[in-house]
Amino acid sequence: MAKYLLLKHYRGAPASVNDVPMDRWTPEEISAHLGYMNDFAARLKETGEFVDSQALTPQGAWVRYDGEGRPPVTDGPFAETKDLIAGWMIIDVDTYERAVELAGELSAAPGAGGKPIHEWLEVRPFMSASQHTIAE
Question: I want to staple 84 with a disulfide (CB 3.0 to 4.6 A). Which of 11, 37, 101, 126 is the partner?
Answer without folding.
Answer: 11
